[in-house]
Amino acid sequence: MKVVKFGGSSLASGAQLKKVFNIVVSDPERKVVVVSAPGKRFAEDIKVTDLLIECAEKSLKNEKTDQVFEAVIARYQDIAEELTLPEEIIQEIRLDLTERLNGDKSKPDRYMDRMKASGEDNNAKLVAAFFRKMGVEAHYIDPKEAGLIVSDEPGNAQALPEAYESLSSLRWRSGILVFPGFFGYSKAGDVYTFSRSGSDITGSILANALKADLYENFTDVDAVYSVNPSIVEKPKEIKEITYREMRELSYAGFSVLHDEALVPAFRAGIPVQIKNTNNPTAQGTKIVADRNNTNGPVIGIASDKGFCSIYVSKYLMNREIGFGRKLLGILEDFGLSYEHTPSGIDDISVILRENQFDKEMEEQIIDRIKTELHADQVFIQHKLALIMVVGEGMRHNIGTMARASKALAKVNVNIEMINQGSSEVSMMFGVKEIDEKKAVQALYNEFFAPVMV
Amino acid sequence: MKVVKFGGSSLASGAQLKKVFNIVVSDPERKVVVVSAPGKRFAEDIKVTDLLIECAEKSLKNEKTDQVFEAVIARYQDIAEELTLPEEIIQEIRLDLTERLNGDKSKPDRYMDRMKASGEDNNAKLVAAFFRKMGVEAHYIDPKEAGLIVSDEPGNAQALPEAYESLSSLRWRSGILVFPGFFGYSKAGDVYTFSRSGSDITGSILANALKADLYENFTDVDAVYSVNPSIVEKPKEIKEITYREMRELSYAGFSVLHDEALVPAFRAGIPVQIKNTNNPTAQGTKIVADRNNTNGPVIGIASDKGFCSIYVSKYLMNREIGFGRKLLGILEDFGLSYEHTPSGIDDISVILRENQFDKEMEEQIIDRIKTELHADQVFIQHKLALIMVVGEGMRHNIGTMARASKALAKVNVNIEMINQGSSEVSMMFGVKEIDEKKAVQALYNEFFAPVMV
């Protein structure tokens, strides 16, 4: 049995819904269909979710909502007309949305969640109606009725353990089950949405609860690439990748799937298949617990800008029990999360995203480290890029570091820092931001496209 | 003006004292002479300090001390006879030691410190007497009178700030000043010793207090080697090295000078010259604040065995503010100090010396990390060696990492981990203990003795 999730662009028009239908019915294992709200039909189009957010914001400010409300309805209507669905379905959607719009505004974030959730909820009803019109047994599943119980955190809900238990009984329902993504209900019966891209999370929760054999995630790319296509032209596609590798690559430039969305599937060991709705015969990328080591130690290279390094040195630091813990405690007081802490004997650097603080906080941090830790030297190096070279095979492949560092030296990139952990799925290189593209290209050439001399 | 310190083997016999005298008078800048207690004359010999510890331990247990007491006196007597010094000096030493032996035993660690300190104290009197007999103006300096005030920590005293002020006036005393190393006096007037090898510390404090131009440290090796001579035969000698490089190398195998001893000289920017009493014309090694970059990015390679790595992984660890701080807090609760913390996105390893804990504590640590941090995986990898490749020039020398990692790959050594900090004086490689020698040899060949192909 497979849980199949379709993203917004896969459900943006009647033509897209026909593709979705053909994909679902072509494999009898595809039992549960998780849907997003209708997405963009063309680059300048507006997603239904964004229209709903605008509508809710206007309503909360007591501004006129007619125009944006009708824009939402029009999106569903366009699809329904294209598919010659009966008018009733649009009336049902209009009724639902009107009710939400005129609902209780005393708790604005809950109001917002109810409005946003309607995008997926109503789309699921529409999709189910279309499937039935095409002659297959299909049911819209209400997450409340099905028991998708979540924590009461607006915009950041988490599925509660009992949700898995309740949802598991969906397995015994007949027909194709069309389930709206992105939200669940609190124990008190209120709507709460997951974080953005939350439909991926719904699919992953259902795959876990129903012990699916596979969680298929249909989007608009053929596969996950081994490197960011905006840096390297036509990069190699990844056929199979482990959860850990995917997570390391998600550092940057690999945002096909929401990190958090993988967790429920990962915990249950269910493989996740990324596929393209617009090109369903393409092999796609499969995310698995273990993979066969194929060619080469590296599976992908990710990079991101916008990091800085707080450097702290103190003679005999190494002898001071508690130094590192105190340093991290200071950063925690400022609410900062950090990425790595490479260290020498008497110095330590903390690498973190620089958008977390401004000049003023920076000075406060330096001041506290100097005063409280009696450091000899504290300074911040800005504009760093981190490059992750990722691959499960890397650890026991002697010479990978030599190849990577030589490739960087050849193109004259200075390695500002290196961090290679213990159980190795990745090597991290810190370079100056201006060297990022050159460095990624050189590493890609080394591991994926050796140039003949 | 120079402060000159002589180690125990440089003062072990009359013949050695003659060398010391010739060294001191050959340079009129050598004003302050810091002496250790007489050391070993031959491999099986016993140092006076060790005899004194035995004597103090026996006395504290009310056992007979005559034999070991006389063994101490005999060492001074042998030297005095060899140098035909008047009998009075030995009588003075005997009187002093008898008084200490019969002193207050109510605080055993202070009694021990008084007994140990006599080794240096009496040797300074002997050396001053010999210098005077040779016709130069020389004075024994009593640390109490000179104002070397220290904290009251037996065996681990620290010089107090006011000590520097008091000692500075020694500058205006005439003649050569012979100062006993290893101890000072508390404000209450009691003897407290520095940590082992504390005579190096005394010399460094005096160099700082007297604003010396140079702190010469005479020992029994020609120079600091670029690599451990027990791993690489006849390694290159280091002519000039910075404090930071010296400190990184002191990690292992470079124990010529006590780390802590460098601090006072380092803070005052006074260079430290390592020289050989038995071969004073050899250039030796100079430890400086800055050095001219000569040939190659690497100045030395140090390595040590006996490390282990605690590996902790948890999916989405990267998102958890406070994870690293909590992990280090647990280790701190066990009193453990750590060396490095290389990390991936969702894993972190803590590298530490494995002699700090046993099997039982290991299990407790793993248990606490699993329970309190909800880690997915926690395990310990034993028998690791750390190799430090050290050099100030390394940071801006593109390709150093490529050369190092290629050298290791060539001899088939797997790099278990790499840690390269921010302001780089060193690169750290973790390898299996069994690969240590092979790895060090390969790195030495790469950076110091390139083999022709």
Structure description:
The structure is a homodimer of 453-residue chains. Chain A has 14 helices and 17 strands. Chain A is of the alpha/beta class and 453 residues long. Chain A folds into two domains: 2-288, Acetylglutamate kinase-like (Carbamate kinase, 3-Layer(aba) Sandwich); 300-447, VC0802-like, CATH 3.30.2130. In chain A, the strands form four sheets. The first copy, chain A, has an eight-stranded mixed sheet with strand order 3-4-2-1-7-11-12-10, with helices on both faces. Chain A has a five-stranded antiparallel sheet with strand order 14-13-15-17-16. A two-stranded antiparallel ribbon of chain A has the order 5-6. The longest helix of chain A has 26 residues, at 108-133. Chain A is globular and about 75 Å long. Chain A starts with a strand and ends in a 6-residue tail after the last helix. The mean pLDDT of chain A is 91. The interface between A and B is large, with 68 and 68 residues. Chains A, B: Its EC number is 2.7.2.4. Chains A, B: ATP binds at residues 5-8, 219-220, 225. Chains A, B: Pfam families: AA_kinase (PF00696), ACT_9 (PF22468).
A few lines on this structure:
The first copy, chain A, has 453 residues and is an alpha/beta fold. Chain A contains 14 helices and 17 strands.
CATH class of the largest domain in chain A: Alpha Beta
Number of domains of chain A: 2
Ranges of chain A with pLDDT <50 over ≥5 residues? none
- Please report the total strand number of chain A as a whole number: 17
Keywords for this entry:
homodimer; globular; Carbamate kinase; five-stranded antiparallel beta sheet; 2 domains; alpha/beta; VC0802-like; eight-stranded mixed beta sheet; 453 residues
